[in-house]
Amino acid sequence: MKRPGKVARYKIQRRLGTELPGLGKPGALERRPYPPGENGNKRKKYSDFALRLEEKQKLRFHYGLKEEQLRRFIRDSKRGSGSNWVSKLVGRLETRLDNVVFRLGFASSMRAARQLISHGHILVDDKKLDISSAVLKAGQTIKIREKSKENQIVLQAKQSPRLDVPEFLLKESDFSGTLQAVPGIDAIPFSFDSGLFTEYYAARKV
Predict the structure, then answer these.
(1) 110 and 162 in one domain?
(2) Beta bridge partners of 135
(3) How far is CA 38 from CA 1, 19, 133, 154, in A?
(4) The domain spanning residue 37 has which CATH number?
(5) Cα–Cα distance, 94 to 4 (Å, whole number)
(6) Most buried among 5, 87, 149, 190, by the most CB within 10 A?
């Protein structure tokens, strides 16, 4: 997925009619709460397909996933016991290292979280982990390395938190936290219709 610039990130959110915290700075819908384009502020009729597609795109863009990555997570979530695979999917996405770093307030966007991780600024259980897609387990600790506490991404996020820390995470200090539990659908930080999302992929036999 090509990394969208600020203007593109705002357009994505306006097109979907939803602020997606993972894309960073808030305010995409404040001045223009309608889709981009010449006729964006005119009432638009949506087909069933368009509604389902929007729910899928919300998840993709917020978590910063390519389509095949998302499909792989879906296939993994459908394995094993339990019928609510969407809840299992969200649990996996919310416990990815990049998302945990973002939700703990160490970074102001998913992209910034990945940058911290790839540059070796994050410790998991006191060991460096530089794989953004790593799925963590309940009880694991996440820290900013001592020498990285003055990193500009960390300082900016500390000054202007994007979201409140969710209940499934325990933030023990400005630079450390613990994953307390694997969350479900309620952890998604934006409006999301799991039924439309399920229908989209059911039609594609994923």
Answers:
(1) yes
(2) 96
(3) 26, 21, 38, 38
(4) 1.10.1050.10
(5) 22
(6) 87
Q: Are residues 10 and 84 in the same domain?
A: yes
Whether residue 25 is contained in a domain is answered as yes
Does one domain contain both 100 and 26? no
Q: Which ranges of 2-84 does DSSP label H, i.e. alpha helix?
A: 6-16, 48-63, 67-78
Which residue range(s) make up the domain with 167?
A: 96-181
pLDDT tens per residue across all 206 residues of the chain: 555 666 588 889 988 999 999 999 787 677 665 666 545 555 567 899 999 999 999 999 999 999 999 999 999 999 987 779 999 999 999 999 999 999 999 999 999 999 999 999 999 999 999 999 999 999 999 999 999 999 999 999 999 999 999 999 999 999 999 999 999 999 999 999 999 999 999 999 99
| Crossing angle of the two packed helices 194-202 and 48-63, in degrees rounded to 10 | 100
| Same domain for 149 and 102 | yes
Name, in order, each residue with C-beta under 8 angstroms of 56's C-beta and a sequence gap of 6 or more: 70, 197, 200, 201
Q: Where are the alpha helices (DSSP H) in the chain?
A: 6-16, 48-63, 67-78, 85-94, 97-103, 110-118, 152-159, 194-202
